[in-house]
Design brief:
about 170 residues, alpha+beta, SH3 type barrels, 2 domains, 6 helices, 5 strands, about 65% helix
C-alpha cells in the first residue's frame, strides 16, 4: 500500500467514526430530552445512553474490521443477524416495554405525581422508567407495572385532565 492510500484509509476511518458518533450523540440527546421532560429517573436515562453507545461501538468495530479487510460483509451481516435475532427473542418483552415507555414519555401522557387508575389499581405515579411505572396506592403499597400493561390500558389519568385536554384542543 502506498502512503497516499494509507492516509486515505485513515481519513475515511476518522470521518466515519466522527460522523457516526455525531449521529449517536444526537439520538442520545433527543431521547434524554424526552426522558428529562417526563421526569424519568436519572438511572434509566444513563442506562439508555450506555446502551446506545454500546450499539454504536459494536457497529464501528465491525465497520473498521470490514474496512481493514479482516472480515467480509457477508460474515459480518450473518453473525450480526444471528446475534440480533437471539437478543431480540430473549429480550422481546423488555424491548416492547422500552418502545411503549418511549411512546408514553414522548406523548406526555404520564408524569410524576399523576393519579391514575388502571384495571382495579389506583395510585400516584412515583417513578417512571422506560420499562415500568411505579404507583403508590392509598394504603401505601407500591405497584410496579410494565409500560405494556399501561399501553394496553385503558387507564384514567385524573390529574392530567387540563394538560391533556389542552394538547387535544391544539390538534383540532
Amino acid at each position: 500500500m502506498s502512503d497516499i492510500s494509507i492516509l486515505a484509509l485513515i481519513g475515511e476511518l476518522v470521518a466515519f467514526v466522527g460522523l457516526s458518533l455525531l449521529v449517536c450523540l444526537i439520538i442520545i440527546r433527543a431521547l434524554s430530552n424526552i426522558a428529562k421532560r417526563s421526569q424519568l429517573a436519572r438511572g434509566s436515562i444513563r442506562d439508555v445512553q450506555r446502551g446506545i453507545l454500546a450499539i454504536w461501538l459494536a457497529l464501528v468495530i465491525v465497520w473498521i474490521l470490514q474496512t481493514l479487510g479482516f472480515t467480509s460483509l457477508f460474515s459480518s451481516v450473518t453473525l450480526s443477524g444471528v446475534v440480533g435475532i437471539g437478543i431480540t427473542l430473549a429480550l422481546q418483552s423488555t424491548f416492547g416495554n422500552l418502545l411503549v415507555g418511549i411512546w408514553l414519555l414522548s406523548d406526555n401522557v404520564l408524569r410524576l405525581g399523576d393519579n391514575i387508575k388502571i384495571l382495579s389499581i389506583e395510585g400516584t405515579v412515583i417513578k417512571l422508567s422506560f420499562r415500568s411505572t411505579w404507583l403508590k396506592t392509598s394504603d401505601g403499597s407500591i405497584v410496579v407495572m410494565s409500560n405494556s400493561t399501561l399501553y394496553n390500558g385503558p387507564f384514567i389519568n385524573s390529574t392530567a385532565k387540563e394538560r391533556l385536554s389542552k394538547k387535544f384542543e391544539n390538534k383540532k
